[in-house]
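#struct-pred

JT: dropping the chains for the assembly here, can someone run the whole complex?
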Amino acid sequence: MNMKKAATLALGILTSVGGFFDVGNIATSTQAGAVYRLQLLWPLVFGTVLMIFLVEMSGRFAAATRQALPDAIRTHLGFTAWLFPFIILSLVHFLVLGAEIGGICFALHLITGLPVPFWALPVSVLLWLFLWRSTFGAIENSSSLLGLITLAFVVAAWKHHPPVGQILAGVVPTLPHHDPTRYWFMAVSLIGAAITPYVFYFYSSGAVEDEWDESYVGVNRAVSVIGMGFGSVIALAAIVVSAVVLAPRGIQVDDYHQAALVLTEAFPFWGFVLFAAAMGIACLGAAVEVSLSMAYTTAQTFGWNWGENLDPREDARFSLTYTGAILASALLILFGVDPLKLTLLTMAVNAAVLPFIAIPFLLLMNDRKLLGEHANGWLSNTVTVVTLALALVLAVVSIPLMIVGGS
Amino acid sequence: MKTLFSAGWSRTRCSLRAGGIALALAAGALVACQSKSPEEDLIQQARPAGSWLATLRWTGEQWNANSVPKSFVKSTVAEARKDLDNVSDAAGKSKARPEARLPLLQLMKDSKAAGDALAGAARKGDRPGVARQVAQLAALQARFSAWQASAKQKQEGGAQ
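RK: done, full complex below.
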């Protein structure tokens, strides 16, 4: 494997840290661990398996066709077929970006004590400047390196010596012992946090930016498994730490302030700072990805110039899209929307809309004229369709129950 | 190929629409089946209060151990207050029997006072004061658990 291919593993790390472990995982994992201890590990494992398949497919597609997904869907299925999924994806992008900006603002609130809305505009300006000035490579490397701080959750889980038997039991789906509506809603949110749709759209555009070709198909497989696995282990560790630290004290995560205490037992002095830093960095990485993903999908949908490696003057509409997206999403936080509630709602919506966003992609992945030997096999199709259907059923049943239940 | 895929897409959309309607009906039926007694409702609405009491207690302990800053104690107390106020409002408006809701109202009043005292002691750097409020919050947690058990008992008694 040459140096360039080895370096592409960094793309996997970026998508896992910024995309897999983000504000959604922090919120859903800490909440699930605090309420149901180790019983809700299975949705995360379930979501991770599906995410590995989706990311692998999107990378394989980009490597085989050298086209990003929305571009190809528009070309091969037609603009009308892509329009509805595009609108849903844009709405999800907007909500997720708001949640990520809220996560960064909350991390800064923990460190400074200043109110969360105070940080909305400074954070959005910094985020925009970072995107405006950086190349794709710079974003990839800085996020990957800084994102390693989220390993604090894994170290904390290790230090608490969690019961291995219960962890293994939690990987197998079980019925709830109490509060079934909340249980299923949390399961859906955990799945939604694991399978954020922007990740595989971002990933395919990133692969095109990195000029992947067919020789990258094997590397892509390794990147998908290692990258998503890396993110998943951190999210699983967050559930474990929360189950060991918060649940026995009777603390449930109704607000991020409650989650902020999760590392203080493993790291008595630094735990609080580590939590704030991990949250801020993971959310920053994810916010960069979501902003770019929104700009990529919009530009590819309408056939504009796009590329983070281009000067903003060369792809003005692409740059304008992420600028507008950042500003609009920051307004949610500026006007006082609760970041945790926004995150939980967004994660549940993610799971519910996933089939609408993934189906055009699946249709394309089965086009043998386009992909030849790289088209989907029965395993990829079966796993993806079954898990998408299950996620949809869980979401459609649990979300109305949760809303009616007033929780 | 484009035509073939357009047809596939159209069929998929129809199946999705039919499946969506069936699922929405199932969810609607489940929602309609959910009905609770006022006591049950109150117990559920009061749930965040127990969690916040535990959070405030541990925040005080962590501040005394130099693990969290003063500003965190202040903002955590402010957030807790919002939910404790919501629980008070719910108890005030609840149709549950007075012997279930009045003790909860008093408990919320005492919890808010303990939270404010905790924030005040941390602001002044008063460690013994924070330790006293931690003990007070532990007592309030025990009272809250006792209230939950008694409300459940009354609700079960009422149901019989």
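JT: nice. Residues 22 and 28 of chain B are 10 Å apart (CA to CA). Chain B touches chain A through 46 residues (CB under 8 Å).
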